[in-house]
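Slide 14.
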Amino acid sequence: MTPLRWAFWRRPPDPLGEGVWARAAHTVDRAVRRYEQMVDGCPAGPVRAELEVFLPRMDAVARRAHAVCVRAQAQAPSTQLTVPGGAHGELHRRLTRTATACAQAAEAAAMARVGADDGTAAVEERVAAVGRAVERAEQLVGD
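Slide 15: predicted structure.
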């Protein structure tokens, strides 16, 4: 491809658009990536090994949340950051809760990394909360 053609190339449109559902999916994704950064910054050893156990679950949460947002966009299309009313308000609340729980898991991983008393028990508790939050969001979007 010639350089001139690259000048007019655009990224394909995101199936989530630019509205509230895209923002919710990106928020969850950023929180999951933050957890991954915490694990990557942890020196090799037993704590890192324990934190790495949760990586596949956290990655699955990001994919599940994205799928929920795609389904929500199909049900209640959004081009703005205004949360749709009705049951979709609760769905958005659950997606926000999922992102918050992911961020708390990253925070717990950081605390485990510096040697906090709870170790990885707090991380396990937060990851379980993440799973419950995204599961509830999946139930809401399926209704």
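Speaker note: The helical segments are 3-7, 20-40, 46-52, 55-75, 87-113, 121-142.
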